[in-house]
Amino acid sequence: MAALEPTPGPQRPLRAHAQRNRDKLIAVARSAFAASDDTVPLENIAREAGVGIGTLYRHFPTREALVEAVYAAELDELSACVPDLLERLPPQVALRAWMERYAAFAVMKHGMADALRAGQAAGRIPTATTRERITTAITAFLDAGAATGALRADVGPEQVTMMILGIFLATAALDTPEQIGRLLDLLVDALHPQPAR
To answer: Which of 1, 57, 106, 120 has its CA 20 to 30 A from that of 163?
Structure first.
């Protein structure tokens, strides 16, 4: 009679030291991918993080796993910063500051495009979930702005998402942050309440 395979239980949280190593690897990979692309040698990332290559592979068995972890960490930060921005800044200013972070996220994604496409095709990166998190963030800014009269109440988050993505797509080959910034400024201006005619 064949032995029964153990049922996998919930994954145990990493010990503090292992979590620190994982976080360092993600932070270094983030910088490396933003500076060039995701083809940077993994040995360089491990060395810069102050760990051995074996430690990197223990946390991220493949290059794709590391890319996906960096993407997830960026998306988490993009979502998590919304309440703080709204607490510190007027809604329209908070939205513009968030768009700047989103632009940096989009630029970093270009350097990881091939690996991210593979992750999406394999179902490891659900595109719908990403879009939902971005839309949820934009909804928070629009709701706060509509409540104070600082932003239009007749524009939906999906429309704003499409306009932002349009800006990123149109400027992807230009590599000019100033141009992206100018277009984002124009977008936020368009979201201010329109005077009665």
So the answer is: 120
Domain extent for 57: 16-61
**How distant, in Å, are the alpha carbons of 83, 84, 142, 150 from that of 91?**
11, 11, 8, 7
Burial classification of residue 141, based on how many CB atoms lie within 10 Å of its CB (0-12 exposed, 13-18 middle, 19 or more buried) = buried
Tokens of 11: 């994954």
The residue out of 7, 35, 61 marking a domain boundary is 61
Look at 14 and 93; give whichever has higher pLDDT.
93
Into how many domains does the chain fold? Answer: 2
The whole-angstrom separation of Cα 16 and Cα 20 is 6
In contact, 85 and 135? CB cutoff 8 Å: no
Percent of residues, the chain, with pLDDT higher than 90: 52
Boundary of a domain, candidates 31, 61, 91: 61
Per-residue pLDDT band for 1 (boundaries 50, 70, 90) equals very low
Is residue 7 included in any domain, yes or no?
no
